[in-house]
Hints:
Layout: H1 5-23, E1 27-35, E2 38-46, E3 49-59, H2 60-63, H3 74-90, E4 99-109, E5 116-121
Parallel strand pairs: 3-4
Antiparallel strand pairs: 1-2, 2-3, 4-5
Amino acid sequence: MPKTERRKFGDYGEKVAEHYLTSKGYEIIDRNYCKPWGEIDLVAKHDEYIVFCEVKTRDSKNSTEFLPEYSINYKKIKNLNKICETYLQEKGLQNSDQQWRIDVISISIDQLDKKAKINHIENAIWGKKY
Length: 130
């Protein structure tokens, strides 16, 4: 099935986020981890943490009224938590001392000049790190 323009735009945002993270010393260990109830865009290691990254990309002409990170509602948070716990369980890390967190990377892209504005919100989902 061919990718929609929206999916292509989202994929581009994920590549921008991946480049940003690696430039900051993160090591990408997984991409687009999927289960029927959701997906996590990027999984990285940084210092002692496994960092699950939810990437939200918008066209800059629309992001002034509705920031990309605003699309993360209660249901999305619940699904993110579930997908992260499933990932840790599948990798045998759920009962270890492995610390983890969920970050949001909000990207606004000017489609004319392809310039991106990145807002990296560490530990965006929870009030404490795990």
